[in-house]
TrEMBL record:
The keyword Cytoplasm does not apply. This is METTL21A. GO terms for cellular component: nucleus. SUPFAM superfamilies: S-adenosyl-L-methionine-dependent methyltransferases. Pfam families: Methyltransf_16. It comes from the Eukaryota. One of its GO terms (biological process) is methylation. Keywords: Methyltransferase, S-adenosyl-L-methionine, Transferase. One of its GO terms (molecular function) is protein methyltransferase activity.
Length: 59
């Protein structure tokens, strides 16, 4: 199933879910760090990272 280009940033991609899950279960790796998420889409992983990291940049 294809996603129209105009809808690409309006959905939560599987990769974002996997990254958010990884951040939640590996909190110690992100504690007090700076995180940069490129091509964040809905920003889910950045929102999760912001609960642990010191600084988060989401683009």
């Amino acid at each position: 199933m294809a996603t129209p280009l105009e809808d690409v940033g309006k959905q939560v991609w599987r990769g974002a879910l996997l990254l958010a899950d990884y951040i939640l279960f590996q909190r110690d790796l992100f504690q007090g760090r700076t995180v940069l998420e490129l091509g964040a889409g809905t920003g889910l992983a950045s929102i999760i990272a912001a609960t642990v990291a010191q600084t988060v940049y989401c683009t």
